[in-house]
Amino acid sequence: MWLRVPAGQTGGDPPDPRRAAGAGEDQGKSRRGSLAQRRREMKRDCTRSRRPRGAVVVFTAVCMVTLMGFAALTVDIGYLYVIKAHLQNAADASALAAAGTMYGRYGLNRSR
Hints:
mainly alpha
């Protein structure tokens, strides 16, 4: 199927908007507007950087690091209590074994 191309245009290129009718009316103006408008935009951009945007991300990161530190400390202290209980069990077992050995060998159950 063949497409009709309007007169003055070649196949695939769209017309250039700068060369269209009426494009020369605003040749003295900038695309972004007047100088005062550009100054207002620059001032708005500068004031935008003074706002506390992004402070929530920093605060959250600091809180997460602190919470992770406390969690690690809690795990370490819990591990110390477990080790203390194991050592106490070993000490109790060795004391009972020593008492049983002394009871049988040396006759410590006799009264004098």
